[in-house]
Structures are given as C-alpha cells and as structure tokens.
Amino acid sequence: MPDEKSFDLLNPFKSIDLGIASWADGIKQWAISNRDVIEPVKVFFSKLIGGIEATLQAVPPSVMLIIITLIAWQAAGRRVAIIVFLSLIFLGLLQPNAWALAMTTLAIVVSAVILCLLIGLPVGILAGKSDGFEAAVKPVLDTMQTIPAFVYLVPVVMLIGIGNVSGVIVTIIFALPPLVRLTSLGIRGVDRSVVEAARAFGASPFQILWKVELPLAKPTIFAGVNQTIMLSLSMVVIASLIAVKGLGNEVLRAMGRLDAGQAIVGGLGIVILAIVLDRITQGFGQSHRERGRGRWWLGGPVGAVLHLAGRKDPI
Questions:
Q1: Among 165, 213, 225, 153, which Cα is nearest to 188's?
Q2: For the whole model, what pTM was predicted?
Q3: Longest Cα separation, the chain
Q4: Is 39 exposed, middle or buried (0-12, 13-18, 19+ CB in 10 A)?
Q5: By the 8 A CB rule, do 248 and 266 touch?
C-alpha cells in the first residue's frame, strides 16, 4: 500500500492533486464510447473541406490565377490586383507541385475561416450587444488565445483522429478569438446617436443591426476577418503535425530532413498566400470613401463591364 503524502504547510501543493490530468484522460474513453455522436461532425467537416479542395484543384491554375486576380481588382483596385497576379505567378514557379499544395492549404484556410465566420460573427454581435455575455465569453477567448496550440492538439486527435478535419478544428480554436473580439468592438463603436435616430424613424432592432450597425462596423469586422485568416495560415505548419496536407506539411518534412531549401520554398508559399489573402480582405474592408468611388460595382472588373455596356448602374 503506497504511503499517503502528508500535508506540508510550507509546500502544500506537493500533497494536493485536483485530478485534472485523470479527468482529461477520461475524454479519450468518452470519445471511444460515443463515436456515433462525433462521426456526423467529422463527416460534415470532411465533406466541407473535401468539396472546397476538389473545387480549387479542379480549376486549371491559369484560370484560378485570373479569378483570384479579378477578385483582388474588384476588392482593392488595379495596383493590388497586379501585386496579387505577380505573387501568384511566383508561387506557381517555386516548384512543380507548389500550386497544388497551395490550393490544398487554401482549402484548409477557407474551410476554417468559413466556420469561424459562422461561429464568430453571431457570438461577436451578441457580445457587442450584451455586457453580461461579453463578460462571460471573454475568459473563454483569453484561454483560446493564450493556451499553446500543442496542448489542444492531443484532445482533438483523441476525439477526431488525425487528418484535415482535426487540422481545421485546431485552426478554428486558434483563429476564432480575434473575429469575436473585433466584431464586438465594431458593434460597440457605432455612434449611439445614429442608432437612436434609426430607432426614432421606426426601424426594428433587426433593421438597425443589418442596415446601421453592421455597415458602420464593417471596417473593424473585416480587420477581425483579416486577423483570423492570418492566424489560420500561421497554424498550417503546426497542424501538419497531425497529418494535415499542404505547404505546412512540406515545411515539416523539410525540417525532419534538415532540407533548408525545401523548407524555404514551403515557407515562401505560405507567405505569398498570406500576402494575397491579406490584400484582398483589406480591400473588402475599405469604405466607399477610402475606395474613391460609390457602390462596389462601380469599380473593378464589374465596373469596367458596366462602363463598356454604357451603364453606370445596374437596373
């Protein structure tokens, strides 16, 4: 029979065990006995990621290059479109399979960002509307932002297994807090006099949110989207530890072989993707005044087509 540890007033922590490690180990047994509960979630994530990746891989690189460049032109103007175009060409020339790996990484990032938006925007709006809810959610966001990523790799793998699904879930945990925080900040930063004026004209709470608060908070919200995208990209190398494919996996393999050249190629690919996504999201976050034009369709490729058609505004 093992000796029981006696309580020491000078070192009380040595004799106290809250059993957190044992409780955490119980998650594995729960996951094994409740696979039927976890499986639908895993299937949903797998179909989402697989569908986005299949779409990106099915489009020829030249066509995808043009599509992304046109999106950049529409979002942020010609100068950014040229930067995006040249950056993507350089990405494709890094190595023969760099484009395919970049599309796999982009699929992971897009999947994570879509799910972050579905979760983060409603939570951020609620936090912006309710002081009590914001006080309750803030410790959770603090924990998500500060806990090392390697800590929650293990429980996610125990629950889901290795692969892209686990990588997206880990990325969501890491990248969600800035979106929630900045959405809440944007809603709270809307001028109260504007809201009161809308209410005085008989606008419903939903109309105030949709037509007043969200448009005025758009730059701040898109800053949160931008941060979420950047954090998602920063996770691709860490997520490759649990068999997530793409550029991050190339960096990890290069590190294992001490192949500096391959690691630099993979790292450059991630940096180029970050530049492209950063410039596009910053463009979408700009107001009409910052863009120097009115509505979004009056500029970019859509505006050029309308101008050629002899129309200034669509009917």
A1: 213
A2: 0.84
A3: 91
A4: exposed
A5: yes
